[in-house]
Amino acid sequence: MSRQGREELVVGIGAGAAGFSDSFGGHERGGGPGLATQDMVLNIGPQHPATHGVLRLRLTLDGERIAACEPVVGYMHRGAEKLFEVRDYRQIIVLSNRHDWLSAFSNELGVVLAVERMLGMEVPQRAVWLRTMLAELNRVLNHLMFLGSYPIELGAITPIFYAFRERETLQAVMEEVSGGRMHYMFNRVGGLKEDVPAGWLDRVDQATAAVRSRMPQIKDLIFGNEIFRARTRGVGVISPALIEAYGVSGPIARAAGVDFDLRRDEPYLAYDQLRADGVLQVVTGEDGDCYTRFEMLLDQVQVSLDLVEACVDRLRSIAAGPVNVRLPKILKAPEGSTYAWTENPLGINGYYLVSRGEKTPWRIKLRTASFNNIAVLPEVLEGCVVADMVAILGSMFFVVGDVDK
Hints:
17 helices, alpha+beta
């Protein structure tokens, strides 16, 4: 058995492989008189470096070509949706920020927006702008992770050190305001946990300026590499029709020319004002390949840094005041239902909340971006060679916890 452990390799060659074929359900291919060959069934995962966690891909190979791909999910399933039902509206925030651990603040945001909508609650203006700024900082942190990790799939290790340098710069200000590096737990129903520390906005300005000044280094390091271009251009092309059929969203959809972004098309928080001011720009591509998907991340980092700077300027003009609403000791949402969706870093994240007037939700259905990003893989991988599979999988930008929930 190889070091990768659980990989299963089933190969049958020649006329003597008939019994082997019957045992493993192989698919015989004509190989001339007296010769029959079988497809190879290859498991990538559920523990494999290319799968970024416990995702399993069951590939059927015809030589080096992928004849079929079956994503097998659920190895990391924690039953988050059922856990929501036995915790009150304050406690569910700690669950919501963990399914996509690279987008923790954005996950928290979606669930508190749903509860606030049910309550008809108006959040203080200062909290609205702080939420918008923190959501964009979280978006940059998410994209920097993929900007650093994806080149590793193609054999380049250097970019991750540059990307993590920028992540640490921004993590410092996120940690200062929330106390957390990964699961921030800074959102509350009605606003935020507390106001930001004195001088924090100046430190955000310094951090964003430093990251912006060094982003060209990452761009030159990756996009200036001829091997990276050869491995990604024209590889893993997804059409707009396929995007629509599978509900793929976020950078992957926009790379294929699908011009859709909830921040602009159905604004929430302060995005409507940022759109009116011309700061919010939606970046799209045309080719829909691995190269363009990766390029989307780099372009969106620049847009998010613009949004952070605009939020900082606006917050300096807002008088000091409350950042949350005083809540009753026992918080109950009125009977009814609502759906709150947000433009998370990886795509559309939605919470369908149903209440029966109790302190706990009767039902919360979670729509995650990563699940749809993985669902389209069988269509994209069919006909590709195995070497391109790794490049395509890494460009689909998913988090396994976000797939399994």
